[in-house]
Amino acid sequence: MAASWARGTAGVVVFLLLAEAAGRLGIVSRSALPLTSAVLARAVLLAGNGRFVADFGATVQAWAVGMAITVAAGVPLGLLLGALPGVRVATRAIVEFLRPIPSVALILLVSLLLGPGLRMSATLIVYGAIWPVLYNTIAGIDDVDPVAKETHRAFGFSRLDTIRMVSLPSAAPFIATGIRLASAVAIILDIATGYVTGPINGPGIGAYIAQQSSGTSDLTVILAATVWAGILGLSLDLSLLGAQRRLLRWHHARLGETE
Fold first, then answer.
1. Residue 228: which of 31, 24, 60, 33 has the closest Cα?
2. Which of 228, 196, 223 is nearest to 32 (CA)?
3. Quick one: pLDDT at residue 259?
4. pLDDT in tens, 204-259
5. What pLDDT does 132 receive?
6. d(Cα 67, Cα 71) in Å, to the nearest integer?
7. Which positions ≥6 away from 176 have C-beta within 8 Å?
8. Count of structural domains, the chain
9. Is residue 37 part of a domain?
10. Quick check: is 3 in a domain?
């Protein structure tokens, strides 16, 4: 684990140094790509900007609300479709019809139906992020050892007990992976929604970037805000990964992984 972190950090540092060198040597125009040092310095200043801090907090709030609804709806639905093949077949057409529709394409429709604000952002997040959770839950249920299920049923347990005591624990690693994938989708959708609708949808990193783009068009500020968006996405993913390792210690121990 430590070696992986060291290699990852080294890769980021090398990339940033190369970008800085490209700007200082004139290989890349500074008007097209500001110096890395300037972007990072502005990112530090944004941490003390009250407006940006409020926008950052609004993005975290939308992510939290959207992900809570996504997990609360996606996992039970995935368990239902995974455990009952008949229901999965009956709903396959509607699911496959809805799944390819990008959430970004629904921004204007949802804004007209719900109005701007947290409800709109959370709705779009749920629509886009529920698919990784749903399909990973179904895949986890499909991967459960049928002998384990039949043995459990042979001891007189009900189908619901078998799902709760056998299928759900076995599918937990798949579900955790789906939640991590959904987290990234949720951040992307919230920022994209804010960028498309602008400040009219309320605060958020996307709205902040949109306002800067239409105002002074200071590329350094825009990239600095984008850096914070990346930091947020990485921090959330690492937090979910840490929770996954703590809650599913048995799974990682079986794979021979270390903390």
1. 60
2. 223
3. 46
4. 899 899 888 875 667 899 999 999 999 999 999 999 998 988 888 766 556 655 44
5. 95
6. 6
7. 240, 244, 247, 248
8. 1
9. no
10. no
Contact criterion met (CB below 8 Å) for 223 and 34: yes
**pTM of this prediction?**
0.85
Token readout for 246 is 């703590």
Domain that holds residue 193: 50-254
**Residues whose CB falls within 8 Å of the CB of residue 3, separated by 6 or more in sequence, listed in order:** none
2-24 vs 36-46: helix crossing angle, rounded to 10: 110
**Are 59 and 231 within 8 A, CB to CB?**
no
Beta-carbon contacts of 184 under 8 Å, excluding residues fewer than 6 positions away, are 233, 237
How far is 241 from 187, CA to CA, in rounded Å? 16
Nearest partner of 75 among 124, 130, 126, judged by Cα: 130
Q: Which residues contact 72 (CB under 8 A, 6 or more apart)?
A: none
The DSSP-derived string for 66-129 is HHHHHHHHHHHHHHHHHH-HHHHHHHHHHHHHHTTS-GGGGHHHHHHHH-SSHHHHHHHHHHHH
pLDDT digits (tens, 9 = 90+) for 96-155: 998 888 888 888 888 888 887 888 999 999 999 999 999 999 999 988 888 887 787 777
Domain with residue 114: its CATH number is: 1.10.3720.10
Q: State how far the Cα of 10 lies from the Cα of 152, in Å rounded to an integer.
A: 49
Rounded mean pLDDT of the chain?
86
